[in-house]
Structure formats: structure tokens, C-alpha cells
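Predict the assembly for these two chains.
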Amino acid sequence: VDHDRIGPEGVRVISVSDEGEFGLIRRIVARLPVTPAVLLGPGDDAAVLAAPDGRVVATTDVMVEDRHFRRTWSTGYDVGRKAAAANLADVVAMGARPTAIVVGLATPGDLPAAWVDALADGLRDECALVGAAVVGGDVVGSDTLTVSVTALGDLEGRAPTTRSGARPGDHVVLAGWPGRAAAGLALLEAGHGDHPLTAAHRQPRPDYAAALAMVAQEEITAMIDVSDGLLADLGHIATASGVRIEITAAVLPVDPALVEVGELLGVDPIDWVIGGGDDHCFAATALHVSGNVTAIGRVVALDDDAAPEVVVTDREVPDNRGHEHFR
Amino acid sequence: VDHDRIGPEGVRVISVSDEGEFGLIRRIVARLPVTPAVLLGPGDDAAVLAAPDGRVVATTDVMVEDRHFRRTWSTGYDVGRKAAAANLADVVAMGARPTAIVVGLATPGDLPAAWVDALADGLRDECALVGAAVVGGDVVGSDTLTVSVTALGDLEGRAPTTRSGARPGDHVVLAGWPGRAAAGLALLEAGHGDHPLTAAHRQPRPDYAAALAMVAQEEITAMIDVSDGLLADLGHIATASGVRIEITAAVLPVDPALVEVGELLGVDPIDWVIGGGDDHCFAATALHVSGNVTAIGRVVALDDDAAPEVVVTDREVPDNRGHEHFR
């Protein structure tokens, strides 16, 4: 008997390879409710979803064990919540309401099947926050545990909120508390796994409602999901829109817990706020400031021959390019 | 200098980690044309596609190195063609026209960037066969090279061709030549990499046109993409429809090359025909037989208390459950 398959009390743990592909799929599908938008759910060659707008928004994100999560730090449920959130936030950042996700799971055969159950529950529960459903997927073997999610959404008649619409004079607004996930990860890396802020790494909580409320008011000119880091992602808006974005550090929302953790770990908490990804805050440019958001700066015109950039006007900041894979 | 990065002529090969995430994405996107259905292509939080039917078909498949392909046997271009085909065939098997795919690439940092270029070209060219476009993706680091594709499609006003519509009296029809990919893989495994049939493993060629022509005639009652094996996939139709399916081995389409390779390797070619997956043939049940398909059997009513099954009426066949991961 494989040692890995013995649980804490010596009980044999059912693994993915014990279940087999079709057994595993049955376990997963049994945990997933459908929504009115699901015209045909899991079990056929493909799912069929309502797309009442006549356009569909689509995005995909891949999470890899020991790169995006560790099984010692995150449960299957955590990984499901996080993988869904990363994709749903991208859909919402386009001004669309998420309708469904499909999931690709590549897994070692000795992964406990209960971990996959928990993953499915996490995907399902995060989707439920926005009324979306898990409608299909694929399960294959791999030496590296990998979760690929594709999310779809409906624009409900609105124009998409792209990165390219920011104009001089617009306000820069932010929904959410950036830097919490990065501080949580720093705590885990420093061995402080019991600190409450580590939950922000395990299960980021995008403020979907605040973003969708902004979108509904139709005063948003550009929006982005902050996943690389606040300055880096505002840089994507600046570049796509051909503008300069000026941010005031003093008005950035700083979770008081970041100050406490910064003292514990010897880190200036503003570094997490401007450079940390993975919180899936929503940054936008807007004609007016309203709703549950923080005004953090303004869009200004580029000087002749100047390159688009993001500037923090009231303090020195390190040259922060945000998160980039392979670098 | 890393040995892996030196090409055959001693020229340093640009790797994925040399390019970095954003450089790699720029390389990929530069190779991808858009189609009229692409309302917003790569470069934002998500893509926006036309979904004129008001419904969208969605499916996902994951391919893992050394499980679904080997880099010694398949080029990046081959893997791109195959990864796209597996998903596009699922969309077509629902009776829908594919419109777009999104792609998740998890890759070791030392993968040559040119391999990724070729992958993108393969994805693009397979999509072009059905008028679809590559509209987005994600690139992350991983120890295991993994390609996740999600394909979307439009039903053009038709009902989806599910697995559950087969009725007693229907004909069973097949578009394509099953078993060629399995025989090609057997050749590669036996060291016959130079045999032409190995191309069927590297680049399966689903007959999208034949399947879409069947769908347009609206005489299809059920359809499936043959990826697990002909008998196994017809078994999925039998189970979902609650029927018995009777197949005549003598009328199955057998590529003459299978006979030759069967003699070479000591395999009965019919085993590849009924058990081999990965050709992405289309099997369907239909009110009439017409078009570029082969009639291979009939749907019959279940006897009282009998379980749905697939029976080959004119010869003994091994108990063939088709391909299942982890088994």
C-alpha cells in the first residue's frame, strides 16, 4: 500500500487514480448545481449556455502547484475559490456579468479524491457569488497539479470596459484593498501561517458587487482587474489609453493589518499596496466618483513625446513592474 | 550558459524565460489574425466575441507532455493543431460552428520560444479550418508542459446535437477513419517514426465539414466526437439515450494503411478501429444516411431490464472500454 494514501488515522485515502477519470468526473458533477443560464450542463461533448446579449466575454487563467499555491498552505477549497476568482474578476473587469466557468484539472494520480471534491466546492461557491455555474471540464493525469479555468460572461447590453478608454481629467478609482494577498503570502513564507491575513492569499475576495455597480452607472471609461500589482496594472491602462496616470499614495486604502504585518516582517506596507497582485481589486477610470470605491488619482494628458506612465506624486517608490512570470 | 539553450549549430536558442511572460505574449499575439466574430481580441482582461445565436457552446481539453504528446515525436505546430482539433471537434459534435478558442500554456522556462511560436501557428491554422480565431490565453511557468484549450461555438439557430437523442430505428453513421491515430502512436512506440501514418497521431484531421453538413440537414438525432474510442463513445450515446446500438464490423471504414501497419506490428487493425481514440471522427445517429459518411449500424430498443450497450454483431471483440485517464 502506497504510504501517500494513508490518512492521519491510518485510514486508506481514496485517490484520484482509485476513482479513475469517469468516477472522478461523476464525483465532481454531483457537487455542482446549475443556473438558469445553463441550457446544457456537464456530461456531453460541450456545454450550452445562454448568451442573451449576443456577445460573450471569455478569459482563461492557469494555476500551477508550487507556483501559484502550495498544498501545505492552501486547501483544495481555497484553490477552487482562488482559481475561480481570478477568472471571474477578469470577466467583471470587462463590465460583464459572469455566467459560467469550465475547468481543466491536470493531476497526479495519488492526489486524494477528497481534495478534488473540495476544489469543486470552492469553484462552485466562488461562482455562486456572481450567479455563475461550473458547466464543464476535463480531468487528465500529470506530474504537476494544474488548474485551468475559463470564465464566460454576458455584457447585458453594455459596451465592454476595456483598458483603452481612459481620458485626461478622469478620476482613478479603486474597489478593494490591494496588498493583502501579498502580505498574506509574505506571512506564510515567514512561517506565520496562523495569522488571519494569510486568508487573503488563500482566498482573495474581489469586490464583484462594487465593480458591477460602477459599471451599471456607465461612468467608467476603463477598468482592469489588479492581478500583477496596482502600479503595473494601472500602467496597462496608461499604455492602452495613451495617458499619464497620477496616483496619490496618501489616499490609497491601506488595510490596518498591513501596517501591523509590515512591522512584524520589516516591510513598508505601501510596497505591498502598490506592488502586490492577486487581490483582484478593480481599478478604473471614471467620469465621477461614486459608490463603494476610493478615489486614488487622476488621468492627465501626455506631454509631447512623453511615454505613457504611472506616477506616484507624493512619495518615492521603487521601480515596480509588478508580477511577471519567468522573470 | 545552460546546455539546453544551445541549438544544433551552437547558436544560443531564445527560451521562454529569456522572453518573459509579456514578451512571449507579444510574440504569440503577433501571429494571430482575428475574424469578424472577434469583437475584442487579445490584450485586455478578457476577449469579447459575437454570439449571434444567443447561446454559446463551450468545452475544454487539457494536453500534458509525455501523456498526450512527446516533444521528440511532435513539433510545437503538431501540438497546436492537435490541441485545437480536440476542442473544435467537441464543439462541432454539438452541432455548433466554432468561433474562438482561448489557450492556457504552462511551460518550463527553458522551452524554446520558437516552440511556442509553432504552437501558436498550429492553433491558428487548425482554427482557420472552421473560421475560428485564437482570442486570448494565459502563460505561466510549470515543470510540466501543459496546453489547455477552451473552445466556443455558435449554434446558428439549431438545437444542440446531444448524446441523448438516439432512438430505435436510427442509423448509426460515422464521418472519418477511426484507428489511424492509435496505429500512428503504435508505430511511434515501436520506433517507426518515419511511417506516414504517424501523422495521424501528430495531427488528427477531424472531418468538420462532413459533420457540419450532417448537422445542417437536421436529420441527426445524436452526435459525439470519438476521442475515447468508437465503441466507448457509442457507449456514451447508448447510455445517455437509453438504447442498444448494433454495429457491423464488416462495414466499418478501415484505412488500408491500418492493414499494412497491423501486419508490421502484429495487431488486428479492427482493434484500432473500434478502440482507438484521438482521431476525432464524428459518430452520429440519424434518421437517414446521406453525405460523406459511412453507415455502420442501427439503434435498437432495449429489451426489458436490459442495460444500454454497444454490440458488434458480426465478430467477437475484446471487452474494450476505450481510453480512460488514471486507469
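The longest helix of chain A spans residues 76-93. The mean pLDDT of chain A is 93.
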